[in-house]
Amino acid sequence: MDFISIIDLPNFADPQIWISLLTLTFLEIVLGVDNIIFISIISDKLPKEKQRFARNLGLVFAMIFRIVLLLMINWIIGLKEPVLTLEWFNEPGSDLPLALSWKDIILLGGGIFLIAKSTFEIHGKMSGHDDAPKPKSGASSLMTMVIIQIILIDMVFSLDSILTAIGLVDNVLLMIIAVVVSIGIMIAFAGPISAIINKYPSLQMLALSFLVVIGVMLVAEGIHQHVSKNIIYSCLAFSLAVEMLNIKFRNKQNQKYLKLNPDLNDDLSIREEDK
User: Fold this and answer.
1) Could you give the percent of the chain with pLDDT greater than 90?
2) For the CA atoms of the chain, what is the radius of gyration?
3) In sequence order, which residues have a C-beta less than 8 Å from that of residue 157 and are 6 or more positions away?
């Protein structure tokens, strides 16, 4: 692909254009799942009235990053040129030293950040520090920290998403339309997804573990070790299906227990009112 036109309008009378648009939009949504999961978990640290704003702002930033990167398409393609050689580390399956491009360095940094952040969140939940009530004071500084973290991970996910899109479509305007539509769909569904993830602690752990896996995948791609995303997403879908069955089973067990112990219903309703 020697040249990608920014100003050429796609021929919407061509059915192939619509197929490409739908395929690219679907791909952007799938690639944005990990972004939504990260934003949902990190925004849960904020007071409830600020969470929706943080989620939407994070996704809008993701859209802006993707559009800016698409408009800088020639620069993005140039990010694949080697800028750093590690003499002490060989290319996978080769005796040649590992040559890193800016793309590789960004993926490595983003992967390490995602692994560290997700591991820290898992540790916080295991130690019980995450159960503390969300502070009303200092909310602005907390919001700033959350937004900074969302921006950092948006940059990494946006680069990965755009590099994938470039391999599928050769019209930048078509890519921009797909990005805007996919982000709009993600904004519409981010709230329900966030509510489900944050309602069930086991789903939070599953989501955080998935982010650790995504971080490992980014690091692997940074050192030119390809990992199939299809396998990762298939494993996530299977794990999610099993966990949903577990949640349904636990709910039924709880209902049976409450029928045998009706006095507990009053205690639980009082606790819900206190919340």
Assistant:
1) 0
2) 22
3) 31, 32, 34, 35, 62, 110
pTM of the model: 0.69
Could you say which DSSP state residue 13 is in? Answer: T
For the record, the structure tokens of 57 come out as 């702002």
Alpha helices in the chain (DSSP H): 15-31, 33-43, 48-71, 73-78, 102-127, 139-166, 172-199, 201-222, 229-260, 263-274
DSSP string for 65-115? HHHHHHHTHHHHHHTTSEEEEEEEEEPTTSSSEEEEEHHHHHHHHHHHHHH
Over residues 207-218, the pLDDT tens digits come to 888 888 888 888
Dihedral sign for Cα 165, 168, 173, 179, please: negative
Asked whether the beta carbons of 43 and 58 are under 8 A apart, the reply is yes
State the Cα torsion 94-116-200-267 to the nearest 10°.
Answer: 160
DSSP classification of residue 9: P
Q: Which residue is listed with tokens 């849960």?
A: 44
d(CA 100, CA 236): 29
| Rounded Cα distance, 6 and 72, in Å | 10
Per-residue pLDDT tens digits for 180-210: 888 888 888 888 888 887 777 788 788 888 8
Distance CA 87, CA 97 (A): 5
